[in-house]
Every structure is written in C-alpha cells, then in structure tokens.
Amino acid sequence: MDKIINRLKRIEGQVRGVQKMVEEDRYCMDILVQISAIQSALKNVGFSVTERHINHCVSDAIKKGEGQESIEELMSVLKQFSK
Amino acid sequence: MDKIINRLKRIEGQVRGVQKMVEEDRYCMDILVQISAIQSALKNVGFSVTERHINHCVSDAIKKGEGQESIEELMSVLKQFSK
Amino acid sequence: MDKIINRLKRIEGQVRGVQKMVEEDRYCMDILVQISAIQSALKNVGFSVTERHINHCVSDAIKKGEGQESIEELMSVLKQFSK
Amino acid sequence: MDKIINRLKRIEGQVRGVQKMVEEDRYCMDILVQISAIQSALKNVGFSVTERHINHCVSDAIKKGEGQESIEELMSVLKQFSK
Predict the structure, then answer these.
(1) CB atoms D53 and C29 under 8 Å
(2) pLDDT digit string, tens, across residues C24-76
(3) Where residue A47 sits, what CATH number does that domain have?
(4) Which of A31, A54, C83, D27 is 20 to 30 A from A77 via CA?
(5) Inter-chain Cβ pairs, chain A and chain D, closer than 8 A
(6) What's a Pfam family this protein contains (chains A, B, C, D) (predicted)?
(7) Are C74 and B82 in contact (CB < 8 Å)?
(8) How far is A22 from chain D (nearest CA, A)?
C-alpha cells in the first residue's frame, strides 16, 4: 500500500497547487485542466483499491462460497465511484 | 474565490484522511466511498470554476464578438473534465 | 444538425448490436466494451449539442445582457450530463 | 438476460426519440437532458453485465485458482467503462 500512499501524497500536493493557482488568480481554464488531472489520479487510486479488494476480500469470500454478498457490496460502491 | 479556496482546503484534508485510512489498513470499500466523496467535491469545484469562467471571460469575449475561440477552448477543457 | 442525426442513427445501430450480442450470449467483457463505445459516442453528441447551444442561445442571451439565467441553466444541465 | 434486452430496447427507443427531437429542432437543453437519461440507463445496463460477469466467469476462475488474469481483464474493461 506504500505506492498508494505516495500517490495520495502527490494528489494532496496537487490540490494545494490548485489552491495556489486560485489565490494567484490564474486563468480559469488552466485551473480546470489541473482539477481534471487530479480527478484522473484519484480515479486511478480508486481502481487500485478496487483491484486489491477483489484480489483479497472478494476472492476469499467467493472461495468460501460466500461471494454473493461481497459482490453486491462491490457493485454498489462501484456505482457510486463511477458517477 | 475565498469559497473555492475553502472547499479546496477541505478536499486537501479529505485526501489526507484517505492516506490515514490506507495506513491504518481500513476496509477497502470504506476507502473507496471516501474517494468517491472527494471526486464529487472536486467536480463541484470544477463546475464553480467553469461557471465563473463563462460568466466573465467567455461572456466578455462574446460581447466583443470574439466568442468563437473562447467557446472552443471551453468545450475542449470541458471534454477533458468530464471524462 | 444532419451530422448529429447521423451520429444518433449510428448509436441506435450500436445499441441494436449490443442487443444481438446479449441474445447470442457473447462474452460479457466484449459487451461491456461495446457499451463503453456507445457511451463515448453519446457523450460526443452531448458536447456537440452543448457547443451549439452556447454558440446560439447562450451567446444571444449574453449579448442582450440576459446571460445570467441562461448560464445557470447551462451549468445545471451540464452537471447532470457529466455525472 | 431478457431483462437486459428489454432495457436495451427501451434505450434504442430513447435514442430514436432524441433523433426526433433534433429533427424537430427542439430546445438544446431538453435534448441534453434526454441524452443524460440515456447515459444513466446505459451505465446501469453496463453494471448489470459487470455484476453478472463477476458472479459467473470471475467467480469460476477464482474458484479454480485462476482469478488473477480474470480480475486484471475485469479491471481494464471497468477503467474504460468508467471514463
């Protein structure tokens, strides 16, 4: 998970960067491009967390024959994440 | 723009919160729900920036009869933002 | 608008193609890739309609000094479209 | 899968409806709202196909100890689908 924490730290830095851009009254479209970059980075972190979850928790549940509930929970969170 | 900076500070705090959740090895699906919340918050900031941009830069360009270029730029950034 | 109607006809054909794939019990992941392609095509149509709207209705409203309401409506529809 | 085919038929009808709106030169923002509705409907079909896929193919692969490849494929298609 160290890799994920590093990516989140970079995202934190990007969010601070956008704050600075707003404070310095930078061009709106440049700010929006930066926000888009943060969204992509966050989405990638979300997918890494999801993949990890399927590889561990969901797989274990399926092997124990208890996959149904685990898959339903996964789908409901994915729906929220993909809005 | 103070309101936007405050929202970005809150987002920065939320990103730090997710880092902590990852460090504490919290449940993946709870982490993903938090990431979704940050994405929504970022999207709202993006829309505020866009609205401000249309109200000022784009409107001014249109009034001067130079809207075309400004609208094309807006659309290209919006496409990236809505991916 | 002929171009947009042609794109919508192609999308209609793609949706029928997915129906056939489901009926023929094709591989789920291939079906999902096709659905993603339709979503991209629809998104592009949406952006064309939006650009046209800004170039005409919103621009006219702004020139008449009545941009505010028009821009608010645009933003509220864009928020729904970008979900 | 009958339910999914019915939903795709309804989506096909909605796409035809949008064509008609464009032909009748209806208000752009009303057209965009309709396109958003189709996108939501398509997204829901995509999630149903995904859930079905995880419940069958992915679960079977995991039970046979061959989950890794199956999960990687799922994630790569999900990334495309959630763009």
Answers:
(1) yes
(2) 999 999 999 999 999 999 999 999 999 999 999 999 999 999 999 999 999 99
(3) 1.20.58.1000
(4) A31
(5) 46
(6) Trns_repr_metal
(7) no
(8) 27
